[in-house]
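Any chance you'd type out a single protein's sequence alongside its tokenized fold?
>
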Amino acid sequence: MTNNEIIYSEVNAKYHTPEQRRAILALAYTPEQIAAKGKEIHFQDVPEEQQGEELEKLLLAGLFHTFHEWKERGKSVKTGEKAAIDTRLWKLDTRPRKTRSSGKEPDALTKAAEEQDDNGNYYKAPAHLFHIGQVEASRPAPAGRFKSLDEIRAYNKMLADQRKAAKAAAEQAASAAPIITEEQHELPELVHVDPLPAKKAAKKASKPAAPKSAKKPAATKSAPQKSAQPAPDALRTAQQAERKAKAAFIAVPETDRKAQAAALDAWRKTRKAVEDAKSAPAAVAVLDEAPVKQLDFESIAAGLLA
């Protein structure tokens, strides 16, 4: 069987009803065109009442081709379409024949195969058939941007000239750019200052309350009491002077090193005065003498005589 006979048999075996055949034929032919084809084709050994059906089968087989055959006809298979029929067709063997490596004389069959021309060297290979409803007109290839080799060379030369011009402009701009220098100034040396001593808050001692007695004793001696002496203000005066000296040192600008050193010396002296005032002995409280009780001699004598 030839390839046309294989396709005819496979197609009409799958699309065997008149409805199936006419649905595909309607994609390529009108009823008038089919009738005109029937007048052109003469069937032999086919009864007249079957010639219409045979015409449909013959035209239907002509609407199935492989992917490459449709491409040769200017059509391409639509995206996502699968082959309508998978079969095996004869294909020309263009593979190089194996050469003999040994010096033995080939047998009669091998020699006959080697002498066979290309027109008779065929083998069956898998083939996939698509009908006319599965293909569309191929899109023309886009026109090339350049029509000749000279246009390509001219375009490349233009690109090279543009790159050279851009490089030269960048170098010229870099050479003409002003040089910016950063001026740095030396900072003055800072004077180290000892941190001020933290002032501790005075703790107040809570005196326990005396328990209240139900009866007071008849005779109580008054205990000696401490007379309240005024606190010395030497420490307070020294602390005020130290704060003023500190404020005067901070107010001196850093650029005036001489005045800054004098203010620092005055501040140190006032701080020493504060430390001396803190280490001075505290004032001693003076105890008040208890009052002397006068005896009543007359009452004592009257009691003795009674």
In short: Strands lie at 64-65, 75-77, 85-92, 122-131, 135-137.
